[in-house]
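Regression test case RT-17, inverse folding.

Input:
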């Protein structure tokens, strides 16, 4: 079996007597896009910084590219790239000069033209950094993370503040990274981003992993089921028993079921018999966001 890019066993981190990470296991394969999701204060930054070698752990085993990040070896650090929320780049340099400057810090940098192409900054290569838009700056941050041609890239919130087009372009860029065979460890607050990009996600809540797997497999969990929604005109007769547990807010009706076919059958039959229009009827699978909201609800089992 190929060794994992990241392997974590029983990782714990306490700050004084507060347990921020309570014994988590993670395995990220080489070449995989993996996303760690969780609400504020769940333990994401703590975990990621331990993986990056920037924070010590209280106990557990951590292996990143075959090394213990806690030992801080320099040769190993050149094999990982870290893209933080803000990279301090000298703003009077051109894009090409800024990337080149960082390439100079590494023993085997990636060719400049390739980096510029992967992040899609070809047309901006001779522009000054200070003239870039927010989205272009973020691409430059990723370019700098790629300077040393790392095997593993940590991407922290890569599309925060982007407009929808810029986000789509950034997703393309992350896929390009995976196309180069890089392993990408992504933290994001956008569920659709994780759903589109990640091969696997883990959801951390209160320092524990509460779900892990390909986004599609989590979506299929019993925690959430097919959603049926519609609007009912005022004065409609009571719904059939198959839809009795539906929630209602004004004229909006929503229900979840693991057996959508019989429920839809009963509903549409009832609607035809009673001459009721099921306005804006929609049937949809839960998104990763639905699963996430379910798992991170304060009243969900386990820690808040
Ligand atoms: P966010 O989404 O808000 O960035 P997070 O999931 O990254 O949150 P962490 O920053 O890892 O969460 O924090 C986890 C918990 O540990 C929080 O309750 C936080 O207050 C606590 N914590 C983090 N760093 C420290 C520290 N240096 N000293 C004490 N407590 C800390």
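Golden output:
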């Amino acid at each position: 079996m190929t060794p994992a890019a990241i392997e974590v066993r029983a990782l714990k981190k306490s700050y004084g007597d507060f347990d921020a990470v309570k014994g988590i296991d993670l395995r990220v394969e080489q070449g995989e896009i993996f996303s760690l999701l969780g609400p504020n204060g769940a333990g994401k930054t703590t975990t990621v910084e331990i993986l990056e070698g920037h924070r010590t752990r209280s106990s557990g085993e951590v292996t990143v590219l075959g090394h213990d990040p806690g030992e801080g070896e320099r040769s190993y650090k050149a094999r990982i790239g870290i893209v933080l929320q803000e990279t301090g780049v000298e703003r009077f340099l051109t894009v090409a000069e800024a990337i080149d400057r960082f390439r100079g810090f590494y023993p085997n940098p990636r060719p400049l033209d390739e980096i510029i192409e992967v992040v899609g900054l070809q047309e901006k290569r001779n522009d000054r950094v200070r003239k870039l838009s927010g989205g272009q700056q973020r691409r430059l941050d990723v370019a700098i993370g790629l300077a040393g041609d790392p095997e593993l890239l940590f991407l922290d919130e890569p599309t925060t503040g982007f407009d929808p087009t810029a986000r789509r372009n950034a997703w393309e860029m992350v896929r390009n990274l995976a196309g180069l065979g890089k392993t990408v460890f992504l933290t994001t607050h956008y569920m659709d981003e994780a759903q589109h990009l990640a091969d696997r996600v883990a959801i951390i809540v209160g320092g524990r992993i509460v779900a892990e797997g390909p986004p599609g497999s989590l979506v299929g969990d019993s925690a959430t089921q097919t959603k049926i929604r519609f609007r009912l005109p005022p004065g409609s007769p009571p719904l059939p028993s198959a839809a009795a547990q539906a929630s209602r807010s004004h004229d909006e009706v929503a229900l979840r079921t693991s057996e959508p076919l019989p429920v839809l059958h009963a509903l549409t039959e009832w609607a035809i018999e009673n001459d009721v229009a099921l306005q804006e009827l929609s049937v949809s699978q839960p998104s990763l966001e639905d699963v996430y909201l379910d798992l991170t609800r304060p009243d969900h089992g386990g820690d808040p």
